[in-house]
Amino acid sequence: QVLLVESGGGLVQAGGSLTLSCTASGSIFRINAMTWYRQAPGKQRELVATLTSGDGTNYADSVKGRFTISRNGVKSTLQMTSLKPEDTADYYCNFRLTEPSTLRARDYWGKGTLVTVSS
């Protein structure tokens, strides 16, 4: 079983920065992709940033140039700068792993961390 734990959320003023981290533990064979999602109150969950095993990245248009996703082993980091009130949301990490027994991909999710940006 794999467990993902996020950290780094909190309250910040507009224009400020925060760094979120997501660390995996358990039996990990291969990480295919690391992705951060967010969900604001009353809105659907949306993709924020993805980092693939080949170091390809993809960002939501709303965060391009402000957010940076990176990886260090089984840890994913989302550096957020120039934060805006509309970035306020619960942020979730998602790891897409290859299961060693079946070689099939499986998604794992963290429980989320709240980011609040005040104006």
What attributes characterize this protein structure?
mainly beta
What is the structure about, briefly put?
The protein has 119 residues and is mainly beta. The chain is built from no helices and eleven strands.
Give an account of the 3D structure:
The protein is mainly β and 119 residues long. Helices cover 0% and strands 61% of the residues. It contains no helices and eleven strands. The strands form two sheets. Strands 2, 4, 5, 6, 9, 10 and 11 form a seven-stranded mixed β-sheet that branches. The protein has a four-stranded antiparallel β-sheet with strand order 1-3-8-7, with no helix packed on it. A hairpin with a 2-residue loop joins strand 7 and strand 8. It is elongated, with a radius of gyration of 14 Å. It starts with a strand and ends with a strand.
Question: H/E series, N to C?
Answer: EEEEEEEEEEE
- Uncertain spans, ≥5 residues at pLDDT below 50? none
In DSSP terms, counting alpha (H) and pi (I) runs of 4 or more, how many helices?
A: 0
| Biggest sheet features | 7 strands, mixed
Shape: elongated
- What fraction of the residues are assigned to beta strands by DSSP? over 45%
Radius of gyration: 14 Å
Give the integer mean of the pLDDT values: 96
- Give the CA-CA distance, first to last residue: 40 Å
The tally of beta strands, per DSSP, is 11
| SSE-based structural type | mainly beta
**How much helical structure, as a percent, in the residues?**
under 10%
